[in-house]
UniProtKB/TrEMBL annotation:
Record SMART domains: HTH_ARAC
InterPro entries given in the database record: HTH_AraC
Gene3D superfamilies for this protein: Homeodomain-like (1.10.10.60)
Source organism: Qipengyuania nanhaisediminis
One Pfam family in the UniProt entry: HTH_18
Protein name: Transcriptional regulator, AraC family
Sample GO molecular function, one term: DNA-binding transcription factor activity
Domain HTH araC/xylS-type, residue spans: 171-270
Amino acid sequence: MTDTARGALAVELEFFLPPEQLRPFITTVYRFDVVEPELGSAAEPIRDWLHPEWFNLRIVLEGELSASIGPGTPVNVPRLVMTGPTSHAAEFVAPPCHTWGVGILPAGWARLSGKSAAEYADRMCDVEADSDLQQLTPLTQISRSNSTLAQKDAIFTLFGKLLAKPSKREAEIVEAQRALLDPGCATVAHLAEKLAMTTRTLERFALDVFGFPPQLLIRHQRFLRSLAQFMLDPSMRWIETLDPQYYDQAQFTRDFKRFMGMGPREYARLPHPVLGAAAKARQAVAGEAVQVLHRPARPAS
């Protein structure tokens, strides 16, 4: 999918579902390119605001990207950057570039790393400088000259090897994520009951595998269920997008400011050259407009 205006940089997005055996661990792999309409043009870089997500790996094969999570000025990111689970919007700026992204689910993180998700929450890290993520560095060797399909296959081949070994508690992780997707699961007590955990055990478990306490995760999910509807149809009024868990629009506005760092009206006025197109493209391929609403498959027993 290509999105462009006359004289502006063009955004190219292409989403790919993983092989069946990787679907409990990866949502999609996607190509994100920003292309000059004419070589040497002085078009302004693309700018957008990414909503909170689970883990995301970005591979920058050509050009550069700048980003920040929460308040702050975007800074250049490494050529191989892991973003942990986020509870704040990530502002990013993209001049012409060729990149790939990998959406990693909590069960995928558990197989990929022995580290707690809380250690990576709301931050980006340089994979090549992180001793626990060195197994991902072969991705920097993907050739830009290869076809899109060859580049995509190289990513899936490596992850097929890295995610082959089961981790502890992955069945619990998947069931917890599925429970969070249920709009009827509106309280920590209800979530704990569904997972047959005490609230104290759930607190520790949520921080370890999702990066955040359960109450914030519940808010996170209801907010993104609402935002996803607007992303797919920006003509909707905010009141029409509200998740059933919201009492009123004021509660939704508080969540919006907490997670996006701005109010809904300000967000709606801003251009969204990447996320608007990405929501529709992702919905068409994966069935959900945003990564966090993806229903994970259960790992093969």
